[in-house]
Design a protein that fits this description.
With 402 residues, the protein is an alpha+beta fold. Helices cover 17% and strands 24% of the residues. The chain is built from nine helices and 15 strands. It has a six-stranded antiparallel barrel with strand order 10-13-12-11-14-15. The N and C termini lie far apart (64 Å).
Length: 402
């Protein structure tokens, strides 16, 4: 079915496109939106060594993709469907020195012995079928990422394939989705997946074919909504024609929640994973065993002192009005009184942005932060709702002692 591209119909003060939304409240009030993420591409890992290969590379524990389904696995009650599914996982690939390279959202298909045949009466796949794991990754560095993975592959029995033409990544967000269980807000959401009757756009899913997908809670934070990969020739279930919107609105949603994504927003080869909050985003396991770059990450984590973190920023004029398109990524944030550098802007959209700032300076209670060489632009750091209190308590105690 052809995907509709109709403009959103909102009050005159809100029009279609990312410029229409100025803050998180507006995105919440317009109801759940959905965006196809052209900034992400889908990669498939297939073969008997898939889990072993990924386990030795990535920061998270991917062994669950190869384990038998258990009672802890999420369940979906649907006809002609594997009754259990594996939730996705967020992970990163680092340099040997522990710096960020690429991020992955990993998805596992139901195990072959959990699939049902077309009649729903018994196994529908060969138990010896090779394991498959899919990942959505930053499309802007796809070729480089594939080349890096193949260098690490050596003799591992795993095929790494770009399937971006076959599968697209989608995000469903806004409308205070995180405040409600999906099955409460939309009863059919709990039965959307392999063989789900409500997935009328994905007819292949009801026939037991291996290209049916479902929405999952974003593995990083509940406030980010739902994520999934779907066949490129269909619109996912629960996506209303007038609620499909530009990906820039999803970027704004992430910025206001303080979450960076991809190798541009998390500078490749430079970013320290803990400063970009990857622990709280469920990207790092500290008891999985060795992986590339583990030593620096583990040492920094166990020291327990993270002096700088990524956080949302608002750019304002002297008058207090929002400063649109005044700041570029890479701009330095300084204390205008001492001229001391506090941090750096990493991402910008309109009058919002993300930046890595020193916490003791960012939240000391003054309004003296500005952009170097742009004294007319004030910087207001924002503490995301999901931040653990202990991230700031230590810095507040040290500031009080000083």
């Amino acid at each position: 079915m052809q995907r509709l591209k109709l403009p959103l119909r909102f009050p005159k003060s809100i029009s279609y496109g990312y410029r229409a939304f100025h803050d998180k409240t507006q995105l919440e009030n317009v109801g759940p939106l959905a965006s196809i993420l052209n900034s992400r591409a889908v990669v498939r890992f297939r073969g008997p060594d898939t889990v072993k290969f990924l386990q030795g590379l990535l920061t998270n524990d991917v062994r669950r993709f190869g384990e038998p389904l258990s009672e802890k696995t999420s369940t979906l009650v649907t006809p002609n469907l594997s009754s259990e599914s594996i939730p996705p996982m967020y992970a990163a690939l680092l340099t040997p020195q522990g710096r960020f390279l690429y991020d992955f959202v990993l998805y596992g298909l139901p195990r072959p012995d959990a699939k049902l045949n077309r009649a729903g009466s018994g196994p529908g796949a060969d138990p010896d079928e090779p394991l498959e794991v899919f990942a959505d990754v930053d499309a802007s560095v796809l070729d480089e990422l594939l080349s890096t993975l193949k260098k690490y592959r050596l003799r591992a029995k795993v095929d790494i394939e770009n399937v971006a033409d076959e599968l697209h990544c989608w995000q469903r967000y806004g409308g205070k989705l995180s405040e409600k269980d999906s099955s409460v807000e939309e009863p059919e959401a709990a039965s959307v997946g392999w063989g789900a009757g409500v997935d009328r756009l994905g007819m292949s899913t009801s026939r037991g074919e291996p290209c049916g997908w479902q929405w999952f809670k974003d593995p990083r934070l509940d406030c980010l909504g739902f994520r999934g990969i779907f066949p490129s020739n269909t619109t996912p279930p629960l996506v209303e024609a007038d609620k499909e919107t530009d990906e820039q609105n999803y970027l704004l949603w992430r910025i206001e929640n303080g979450v960076a994504e991809g190798s541009t927003e998390i500078p490749k080869g430079e970013a320290i994973p803990l400063e970009y909050n990857l622990v709280a985003l469920n990207a790092i396991s500290f008891d999985k065993g060795c992986y590339v770059g583990q030593e620096l990450v583990a040492r920094t984590h166990h020291r327990g002192v993270i002096r700088k973190r990524l956080l949302p920023l608002k750019f304002l004029k002297d008058s207090g009005e929002e400063a649109e398109q005044k700041v570029a990524p890479g701009s330095e944030v300084i204390d205008s009184v001492s001229d001391k550098k506090i941090g750096t802007v990493t991402t910008q959209l309109g009058c919002r942005g993300l930046g890595v700032l020193r916490l003791d300076e960012a939240f000391k209670g003054s309004s003296t932060l500005t952009i170097r060489s742009q004294d007319d632009v004030k910087v207001e750091p924002i503490r995301p709702d999901w931040w653990p209190p202990e991230w700031l308590q230590g810095h507040q105690r040290r500031s009080a002692a000083a």
